[in-house]
Amino acid sequence: TWDDKRPFQIWYGSRYSAKSYTKAIQYLLLCSQETYFRGIFMRYAKSAVRNSQYQLFKDVCDMKPILKESFRFFDSRLEIVHLETGNKMFGGSFEDPGKVMSIADVTRLWLEEPITREHEIQVKDIVHMQGSLRSRHDVDPIVDLTFNPISIDTDIYKQFFDDKNSYKYRACKLK
Hints:
By secondary structure, the chain is of the alpha/beta class. It is built from six helices and eight strands; from the N terminus they run E-H-E-H-H-E-E-E-H-E-H-E-H-E. Strands 3-4-5-2-6-7-1-8 form an eight-stranded mixed sheet. Strand 3 and strand 4 form a beta hairpin. The protein is globular and about 45 Å long. It starts with 7 loop residues before the first strand and ends with a strand.
C-alpha cells in the first residue's frame, strides 16, 4: 500500500499499531525523495496537531540523525521544510479549513483521527477538501486517513467500507 495511488488512503488499527508513526515516516521520506511534495497534516483542533503529528515528525527526526540534519522545523507556524529539495509540510485543523485549503499546490493531505468521541469529520467535507487540492506539478492529490477502529454507524464507515458506496473502490484500506 505504500505506493498505492488511489485518492484515499485509509490506515486503521489499534492504538499501538504504529499507523501514525509509519505515516509520519512516509511523509518525511516523500518530502525528502520526491521531485515535488507539499503535504498538509491535520486534526480537528490545531492544539492537537502541534502535540501529536507535528511533535511526531520532530520525534522521528530526532531518532534518525540522517533525517534530523535534513529538515528545518518552524514551530510558530507548524511548517517543516526539507533543506535539500525545498519540499514542505504544513500543520492545520478543521477549526479553520479555509486557511489550509488556500495553501498552493498540495499533493498530500493527512487527516489524523477524523473520528473521535467528540468529533467526526464528514466524508462530504473530506471529498470537498480532496477536490480543492490541485497541483500544477502533474501530481494527483491523495488524502490519507489514520484512525482507530470505528463504529459502523459513522459516516466514514458507511462511505468507505460499506459495499453500497462507490468511495469504497476509490480507497486503499489497510488494517
